Amino acid sequence: MRKNRQTHPYLKLLSLTWFIVPAVVGAQANGSMLKFCTEPWPPYDYKHDGNLLGSDVERNRKMFAQLKLELQVHIMPWQQCWKLVQTGKMDGALMVSKKTARESYVYYPRSSMTQVNYVWISNKNHEKQYFDLCPNLSLLNIKIGLVKDNSYSSALLRCLAKPYNSERIETYNTLEQALRMLIINKIQLIPAIPEVVEHLTQDIKLEGIVVHPTPIFSKTYYTVFSKNSSFKNAQYPSIKALSEAFDNLSLTDTADP
Q1: Angle at 69 between CA 64 and CA 73, to 5 degrees
Q2: Cβ neighbour number for residue 105 with a 10 Å cutoff
Q3: Cβ neighbours for 199, distance < 8 A, ≥ 6 positions apart
Q4: Which residues of the chain have pLDDT under 70?
Q5: d(CA 8, CA 57)
Q6: Angle at 92 between CA 89 and CA 95, to 5 degrees
Q7: Which helix (H) or strand (E) holds 251?
Q8: CA-CA distances (angstroms) from residue 136 to 21, 42, 118, 190?
Q9: What would the pLDDT profile of 225-245 be if each residue is shown by its tens digit?
Q10: Which of 19, 136, 185, 234 is spaced 20 to 30 Å from 216 by Cα?
Q11: In 3D, which of 88, 105, 1, 110 has the Cα closest to residue 37?
Q12: What does the alpha-carbon distance between residue 177 and residue 160 come to, in Å, rounded to a whole number?
């Protein structure tokens, strides 16, 4: 009887790579591949089990597909992402708030991609308290936690700069770190997006966190294009031309029926 020949797993991997690599190289060679970055921000942009997920990722993929382009998204810390965008090593970035200083480096579409509300996040000790946009932290004898490089409203930042608040601010590298400090009562308040907090607490099983329902401010976020990107192809002679095509598409895509 003739035995079935078994293919070595390494050879199977090589065979799979043979089909994948030419496809990616081909996309880059004909100018159909774009490289964008963003910070991890579930449920909008994040990585899970090696897969890129999120409502913002999917929406951008669909929009670029209408322009006959493939979107390659890289999840990384915001500072790293922004440096790559500034130098043109990334063609653009997702979920970027609008700041005048950034306009020297990127093209902003006229239409935003996402608008979100920020609310107060507290622990169980302060579940029944009401906090407005500008609480007096010294009077309340509490501390607030901010996430480094996050974009907050100018009204909140002016409030926190007041003498009775400025000494009661703690900063953290990530929202997860801030939430863990909240649970053990090192801080008592965090301004954050409720959907992000709820997704994160479910993922890492954090308990004792209270999401207050009243919005304190809202922010809009954009898909932006690096002015230093070298991207071009037969259809889009420059990154600026691509940003204009995307802008027109986004206006159509987000218009009310």
Answers
A1: 70
A2: 17
A3: 42, 43
A4: 1-30, 250-257
A5: 36
A6: 135
A7: helix 239-254
A8: 57, 31, 19, 14
A9: 999 999 999 999 999 999 999
A10: 185
A11: 88
A12: 20
- 160-182: burial string, b at 16+ Cβ within 10 Å, e else: beeeebeebeeebebbbebbbbb
pLDDT for the residue 71: 96
Tokens of 233: 């192809």
Q: With contact defined as beta carbons under 8 Å apart, do 219 and 115 qualify?
A: yes
Q: Is 32 exposed, middle or buried (0-12, 13-18, 19+ CB in 10 A)?
A: middle
Distances (CA, A) of 144 to 29, 122, 176, 179: 49, 9, 14, 11
- What is the pTM (predicted TM-score) of this model? 0.77
What's the rounded Cα separation, in Å, for the pair 165 and 142?
A: 10
Contact 218, 155 (CB under 8 A): no
pLDDT for res 206: 81
Q: What are phi and psi of 54, to 5 degrees?
A: 125, 150
